[in-house]
Amino acid sequence: MRPAVRLATGPSPVPTPKTRAAARRKTKATVLKVEVPDPVWTALRQEALDRRVTVKYLVLEALAAKGYAFDLSAIPKDGRRLR
């Protein structure tokens, strides 16, 4: 009769921020950079502050409202304030 073999059951590897971000990102994303006039940027920042979201989230929300197909709830929180 052979002795029972025990498998090592140590703690699972700790996910790094990089692996967590890769796990969240299910679709390919591309960076979009645009220049806007200072008054527009100021207005976007103020609305983002008032609504406790990021400017990025506001832009994505506007694109969704215009009919661009993506699930806004699937967008990572990307620093939106949770207070």
Q: Figure out the total of helices.
A: 3
Helix % is 25-40%
Gyration radius from CA atoms, angstroms: 21 Å
Spatial shape: extended
Strand elements, count: 0
Distance from N terminus to C terminus (CA atoms, Å) equals 61 Å
β-sheet strand percentage: under 5%
The major pleated sheet works out as: none
How would you describe the oligomerization state of the chains in this entry?
single chain
Q: What order do the helices and strands follow?
A: HHH
**Which class of secondary structure composition applies to the elements?**
mainly alpha
Rounded mean pLDDT is 77
Unreliable runs: none
Which tags fit this structure?
mainly alpha; 40% helix; 3 helices; 83 residues; 0% strand
